[in-house]
Amino acid sequence: MEMRNGAGSPSGAARQNANGSFKAQDRAWFWGGISAAVVVHFGVLAFGPSFAVVLDVSAPPAELYSVELVPPPDVVEPEPPPAVTRPAPPEEAIPPRPTRLAQPVPVELEGERGLDAFAFDEIPEIPPLPAPPAKPEAEDDPRHVVFTVAPELVNRERIRSILQRRYPARLRNAGIQGTVLLQLWIDENGEVTRHAVARSSGNEELDRIAQEVIDLMEFRPAYNLGKPVAVSVALPIVFEVR
Length: 242
Fold this sequence. Notes:
Among the domains are: 11-45; 142-239, 2-Layer Sandwich (TolA/TonB C-terminal domain). It is 26% helix and 15% strand. The chain has helices spanning 10-47, 156-166, 169-173, 204-212; strands spanning 152-153, 178-186, 192-199, 219-220, 222-224, 227-229, 231-239. Strand 5 (222-224) and strand 6 form a beta hairpin.
């Protein structure tokens, strides 16, 4: 069988000519573009503005800031809340003491008759009962007066200073000391109406000095339910060697 090449036919030769012309034309355009690009770049570099690359590595000077350290303000502690005071308990009303004892009232009882007194030959004589002791009135004996507020010595510091000055130096140097217990009767105006030595100190001179300052004492009277009353109180006077 005979094999023929396409190049040997007229159609094959035409295809080879067209392909070769296309390649030649494409090659011409390629080199023409390369040449034009080279010419354009050369013209720009030769006749265009000059280019310079500047590298600026210097940094602007840093700004300095001053920092002022301010101590923190003092913390003021709040004041504690005021203490809550409890109200005073109500005072109980004390009933007044009876000034006199109730006298017995005779009562006649009705009923059957008891033993006849005349049925006995002799009736033993019954001795009479002794009379009850007289009870002093509250006004005559202030020691039994009820009071809600005790009397108060107003010039206590002045009396103490006077007693220190009148304390004899010879007794103080000898170490003689003691306590005089005075019984004072104080009226509704705070005046001392009577006084007595309830217990002696054992030294007559100390007892005398303690009684001499009674007239200089100023008292606030005692009160019973808001009303001043006369009372009797015991006041110790201490002579002490320090």
